[in-house]
């Protein structure tokens, strides 16, 4: 059973987002493995804090490690292939508007 994220962070249920963020930052600084050595306990507590924060913020927990997600993304990009570029219709419209303004300016100069 998953732990209550508010209890993990030591917050009252339904705390304001600003309070949640402030508490999260304070706890992360305190329990970061780089500060407390790479002991299994500090790493576990740090991950527990991060998961609780993610749960409160409503973000989905990522599937797999960063390397696995990156490999999956690269495979998806290879499947799509290069993007074919054509003439952008909005650029064509802007160019024709500018040409029209140039013609109008020339006509006004002749007056």
TrEMBL record:
Highest taxon listed in the record's lineage: Bacteria
Pfam families: DnaJ
Domain J positions: 4-61
InterPro entries noted in UniProt: DnaJ_domain, J_dom_sf
Name listed for the protein in its UniProt record: J domain-containing protein
Organism of this sequence: Solirubrobacter phytolaccae
